[in-house]
Design a protein that fits this description.
Layout: H1 4-15, E1 21-23, E2 26-28, E3 35-39, E4 46-51, H2 55-74, H3 77-93, H4 95-106, H5 110-131, E5 137-140, E6 146-154, E7 158-161, H6 169-181, E8 185-188, H7 195-206, E9 214-216, H8 222-230, E10 237-241, H9 244-257, E11 260-264, E12 269-273, H10 279-291, E13 301-307, H11 308-323, H12 343-358, E14 362-365, E15 380-383, H13 390-393, E16 400-406, H14 409-417, E17 424-428, H15 432-441, E18 446-449, E19 468-469, H16 476-479, E20 482-490
Parallel strand pairs: 7-8, 7-10, 8-9, 10-11, 12-13, 12-17, 13-16, 15-16, 17-18
Antiparallel strand pairs: 1-2, 3-4, 5-6, 6-20, 11-19, 14-15
This protein binds nicotinamide-adenine-dinucleotide.
Nicotinamide-adenine-dinucleotide binds near residues 188, 265, 298 and 395.
C-alpha cells in the first residue's frame, strides 16, 4: 500500500508548478503575495498551497478576458472546436493523474474520481461538436414585405463560480460551452478544491487556448472578488453552481448590471419506489442515486418515498448494502466511501440524523461519526422517517438515506413536489401509464425512471424553483452563452 506522502507526491507531480493564478496566459503570484493551504479532508493535513488572489488580481483577470473577447469571438468555430477536442483527449489520456488530484483534494474514492473525469471530459467532447453547429435562421415576414434574419453572437466575458463537490465537471460544463460559443471567462473555483481547476487551465493552455480566453483566480475572498467583477459593465454573464443561499445573493448583484445568469443550485431529490417496481433494481438504483459522490451531489436522492407494501423489504435490502460499504481514505484500495468535505459537513449531517431519530425514525444502519482523524460519516439508513422531519426538507449532502412511506400514487407525487427545490427526481415503476404521469407531474428539472444516474453531457441539466434556472449540457447548454441579433431585411 502506498503511504499518504507518496499519494501527495504522485498527485502533485501531475499538477507541476501550476499553483499560481492564471491570468492573460501567464502563471503568476497574487499581487499581495498571499497563499492559502489546500487541506486533505481524510486527515486535515495541508496538501499544498496556492496563490490567494484579491480584488486587484480579479480585475486583472477581467481586463485580460475583455481584451481577448473580440479576437476570440472572431475565431472560426472549427478552431474553437478543435481546442476543446484536444483538451478532451489530453484529459482522457491523463485520466489517472486527474483522478488522483480530485480524490486528494475532495476526498472521493479513486473510482468515483475516475467517473468524474470521464463525465467532466465529456462536456469538452460534446461542446467541441456543438461549436460548429451555431446558426441562425432566415424567414419571410408573415405579412410579407421583409425578411427576418437572426444570428448568434457570444454573450461576452463571463464569470464562473464553481463548488467543491465535482472540481472538474462543474468547471468543464461551463468552460466547454463558453469556449464553443466564443466567450472569454474568469473562473473562481471553490477554496477547498482549487488544484483540479489549475490543472484544467494548464491542459487548455496545452490544447492551444489563446491567452486571456480563460483566466483562473483562486481566492479566499469569494464575496469581494465576485462583487467587484459583477460591478463592472464589461462582465456580461455569471454562471454559478453552489448553494441556493449564495445563488440568491448573486442574482441580486447581477440585477444592477442586468448580467445574464445561470444558476445551478441546491436540490432535495425524491426517490419514489412503487410496489410494481423491480425491488432489487430499485435498491441498485438507490445505491447510485444516494452514494455517487458520497451523497455530496445536488442530484443525490435525498428522500426515499416507498409504497407501504414494499417499504420493509426495501429498507432491509438497502440497509444491508449501505452497512457493508467500507469507509476510509479515498486513495486507498478497497474503499467505497471517502471523507466528507469538512467538519461542518459532518456536524450538519449528524444533526439531521439525530433529529430524525428524535422525531421517531429508526436507524437501520450507521448513524455515527467514526472515531479518529478526518471528516468521515457512516453510511446510514433511517426508516419510518416522519414526512416533516428536517432531514426530508433540507439538503442532506452526505451518505444518509431517510425512508418514508406512502400509500397512493397521488400522495407520492404530492409529497415529492412538497419542497422548495426542483432539481432531480427518481422513480421506480414497471407501469408505463404511471411513468408518463410521473414525467408530467413531478415538478423537477430532471426525472430519472428506473435509473439512479441521470447526469449526461448530452442532456440538459438544471432545475426549477429554488434549484435555479438555466441548463448545462445538451443542445440547450450553448444557448446560455449566445445572444440573438435580429436583422430586418427589405424585400429583394
Ligand atoms: P457554496 O454556495 O457555499 O459555494 C459555491 C461557490 O460559491 C464556491 O466557489 C464559493 O467560494 C463561492 N461563494 C461562496 N459565497 C459566495 C459569495 N457571497 N459570493 C460569491 N461566491 C461565493 O456551495 P458549496 O458548499 O461549495 O456547494 C454545495 C452546494 O452546491 C449544494 O447546495 C449543492 O446542491 C450545490 N450544487 C449544485 C449543483 C447543480 O448543478 N445544481 C451541482 C453541484 C453542487
Amino acid at each position: 500500500m502506498t503511504t499518504t506522502s507518496q499519494q501527495y507526491e504522485s498527485a502533485l507531480r501531475a499538477l507541476g508548478e501550476h499553483r499560481q493564478l492564471f491570468i492573460g496566459g501567464e502563471w503568476r503570484q497574487a499581487e499581495g503575495g498571499r497563499r492559502f493551504g489546500v487541506l486533505d479532508p481524510a486527515d486535515g493535513t495541508t496538501i499544498t498551497d496556492v496563490a490567494d488572489g484579491d480584488v486587484g488580481d480579479a480585475m486583472d483577470a477581467l481586463d485580460a478576458a475583455a481584451a481577448a473577447q473580440g479576437d476570440w469571438a472572431r475565431t472560426p468555430p472549427r478552431e474553437r472546436s478543435e481546442i476543446l477536442r484536444r483538451a478532451y483527449e489530453l484529459i482522457t489520456a491523463q485520466a489517472d493523474d486527474y483522478a488522483r488530484l480530485i480524490s486528494l483534494e475532495m476526498g472521493k474514492t479513486l473510482t468515483e474520481a475516475r467517473g468524474e473525469v470521464t463525465y467532466g471530459a465529456e462536456f469538452f467532447r460534446w461542446f467541441a461538436e456543438e461549436a460548429v453547429r451555431i446558426h441562425g435562421r432566415w424567414m419571410q415576414a408573415p405579412a410579407g414585405g421583409s425578411r427576418l434574419l437572426t444570428l448568434k453572437k457570444p454573450v461576452g466575458p463571463c464569470l464562473f463560480i464553481t463548488p467543491w463537490n465535482f472540481p472538474l465537471a462543474m468547471g468543464t460544463r461551463k468552460i466547454g460551452p463558453a469556449v464553443a460559443a466564443g466567450c472569454t471567462m474568469v473562473v473562481k473555483p471553490a477554496e477547498a478544491t482549487p488544484l483540479t481547476m489549475l490543472r484544467l487551465a494548464a491542459t487548455l493552455e496545452e490544447a492551444g487556448l489563446p491567452a486571456g480566453v480563460l483566466n483562473v483566480v483562486t481566492t479566499t475572498e469569494a464575496p469581494a472578488v465576485s462583487e467587484a467583477l459583477m460591478a463592472d459593465d464589461r462582465l456580461r454573464k455569471v454562471s454559478f453552481t453552489g448553494s441556493t443561499t449564495v445563488g440568491k445573493v448573486l442574482v441580486k448583484q447581477a440585477a444592477d448590471r442586468l448580467q445574464r445568469v445561470s444558476m445551478e443550485l441546491g436540490g432535495n431529490a425524491p426517490f419514489l419506489v412503487f410496489e410494481d417496481a423491480d425491488l432489487d433494481a430499485a435498491v441498485d438504483g438507490a445505491m447510485v442515486a444516494k452514494m455517487r459522490n458520497m451523497g455530496e451531489a445536488c442530484t443525490a436522492a435525498n428522500r426515499f418515498l416507498v409504497q407501504d407494501s414494499v417499504a420493509g423489504e426495501f429498507a432491509e435490502k438497502l440497509g444491508a448494502r449501505m452497512g457493508a460499504l467500507a469507509v476510509g481514505r479515498g486513495q486507498d484500495e478497497g474503499i467505497d466511501v471517502g471523507p466528507l468535505i469538512d467538519a461542518k459537513a459532518v456536524e450538519s449531517v449528524h444533526r439531521l440524523v439525530t433529529d430524525a431519530v428524535r422525531d421517531g425514525a429508526a436507524l437501520v444502519c450507521g448513524g455515527h461519526v467514526p472515531d479518529g482523524p478526518g471528516t468521515f460519516y457512516e453510511p446510514t439508513v433511517l426508516s419510518g422517517v416522519p414526512a416533516d422531519s428536517e432531514i426530508n426538507t433540507e439538503e442532506v449532502f452526505g451518505p444518509v438515506a431517510p425512508i418514508t412511506t406512502f400509500s397512493t400514487e397521488k400522495e407520492a407525487v404530492q409529497r415529492a413536489n412538497a419542497t422548495e427545490y426542483g432539481l432531480a427526481s427518481y422513480a421506480y415503476t414497471r407501469d408505463l401509464g404511471r411513468t408518463i404521469r410521473l414525467a408530467e407531474s413531478l415538478d423537477f428539472g430532471m426525472v430519472g425512471i428506473n435509473t439512479g444516474l441521470i447526469s449526461n453531457a448530452a442532456a440538459p441539466f438544471g432545475g426549477v424553483k429554488a434549484s435555479g434556472f438555466g441548463r448545462e449540457g445538451g443542445f440547450e447548454g450553448i444557448e446560455e452563452y449566445l445572444d440573438t441579433t435580429y436583422v430586418s431585411l427589405p424585400e429583394g
